[in-house]
Amino acid sequence: MYIENFNDSFYMERAIELAKKGIGKTKTNPLVGCVIVKDEKIIGEGAHLKFGENHAEINAIEDAKNRGEDVSGATLYVNLEPCSHFGKTPPCANRIVKEGIKRVVIGTADPFEKVSGNGIKILEDAGIEITEDVCSEECLILNERFFTYVKNKRPFVVLKAGMSIDGKIATESGESKWITSEFSRSYSHELRGKLDAIMVGIGTVLSDNPTLNVRHGKYKNNPIRIVTDSKLRIPIESNLFRDDLDSISIIATTENCDKEKLKVLSAKKNVEVLICKEKNGRVDLIDLMDKLKEYNISSILLEGGRTLNAEMLKNNLVDKFYFFIAPILLGSLGIPAIGDLEIDKLKNSIKIKDIKCEKLFDDILVTGRCD
Asked: Which of 82, 233, 295, 320 could staple 93 via S-S, CB 3.0–4.6 A?
C-alpha cells in the first residue's frame, strides 16, 4: 500500500481545489483537477470546467505550454484516473504519453467501465511510473455524485429539509416561512447551485408556488427543475414557467394526466413533459430516474414534502441528506419532513451513517448518508 509523502499530498490537494472550479457545471462528468510539477515547481494547472469541454489534464498541459514550460519528464497529479476513450474529447491518457510525462500520481481509479483501469494500463505500458490512492478519501468525497451515478446508473440524490427540532417542516395550517434562519436558507441555495437539478412534488408547487432557482451563494448555476405531478395539476401560471429562468422545467406525469393541459405545457418554452409509468397512483420514481438520463442529470437536490420524501426513501433513491434544524418546536400536528415509511419494526428502519453536525448560528446542520 502506498504511504503518502508530503509533496504528493500537497500537490494532490491543490488538484482537488482546482477540480472544485467545475462544481455545478460538469453534469455527468466528474470533477477533475490537474497539477504538473517539474523540479519541485508547478509548471501547469487545469480543471475540467464544463461538460463537453477539455478535461483537466489537457488544460494543465496547455497551461504549461502557454507559460513556456516543457512538460517532458514532469510529474502529473490528477484526482481521477485519466480517461482512455474517445467521448466528447480525445483520451487524456494518450496525450500524457505523447507529451513525455515521466510520472502520474492518481487520487482514485475511475469506475466508469470505458476507463476503469484502462487509463492506468495505457500509462504503464508506456513506461510511466504510476502512484495511486493519494488523498483517496478526499477524492472520493469530491466526486460522490459521479461515483453514485456510475455505480447505480441513476442520479445522486440529496434530500434537504429545513425543520423544527421535532422534525416538522410546517405548522398544521401549512405555514413554513421561515422555520430556519436566513443563513441556513442561503446555504441551501448554495446546494442548489452545486447540483444539476432540484426536485419537488406537486403539493409543494401548489402550496408555495416556488421558483426553485439560485438567489444566494457563490454557485450561480440554476438547476433543472423537476416536478412529480401524476395528474398535471400544476397551474399554467406557475413561477416555474417564468420566461426569465435560464434552465428547463421537467414535469413528470403519467398517462392519467390532464390531456388538455399536456398539450399546453408541451408547447411552452423551456418545459419538458415526461410520461412515466404509474405506481400506486403516482409517478413511478424509478422509471423517472431512468428517464432523466436523457438530460445528463447526475445529481438532484430533493426539496420535496413529506410524501415525495417518503416515496424516494422507500424506493432506495436517497443517498445523502442535509437537515437544517431550527431551535423551535411545532408539536404533533405540525407537518413532518418525511411521511409514512411503512416501518413497523426497528430492524427495518432506514440506517444513516457518516453523521456530521455543525452549528449555523442559531440552527444546526445535520448531514449523513443512507446506508
From this structure: 82
Q: Where are the alpha helices (DSSP H) in the chain?
A: 6-19, 56-66, 92-98, 118-125, 136-142, 144-152, 182-194, 202-208, 259-266, 285-291, 306-314
In angstroms, the first-to-last Cα distance of the chain is: 27
118-154 tens-digit pLDDT: 889 999 999 999 999 999 999 999 999 999 999 999 9
Residue 31 to residues 48, 291, 326, Cα–Cα distance (Å): 7, 23, 33
- Whether residue 57 lies in the annotated active site: yes
Packing angle of the helix pair 6-19, 56-66 (nearest 10 deg): 100
Q: Give dist(CA 85, CA 105) in Å, integer.
A: 20
Q: Which of 13, 45, 57, 303 is catalytic?
A: 57
What sign does the dihedral 302-306-307-310 (CA atoms) show?
positive
pTM of the model: 0.91
- What does the mean pLDDT of the chain come to? 92
Q: Which of 247, 254, 213, 212 is nearest to 233 (CA)?
A: 254
Q: If you count them, how many residues does the chain have?
A: 371
Residue-wise pLDDT for 211-245, tens only, equals 998 887 777 788 999 999 999 999 999 999 987 77
Say if residues 283 and 253 touch (Cβ distance below 8 Å).
yes
List the one residue out of 158, 73, 151, 65 whose CA is nearest residue 108. Answer: 151
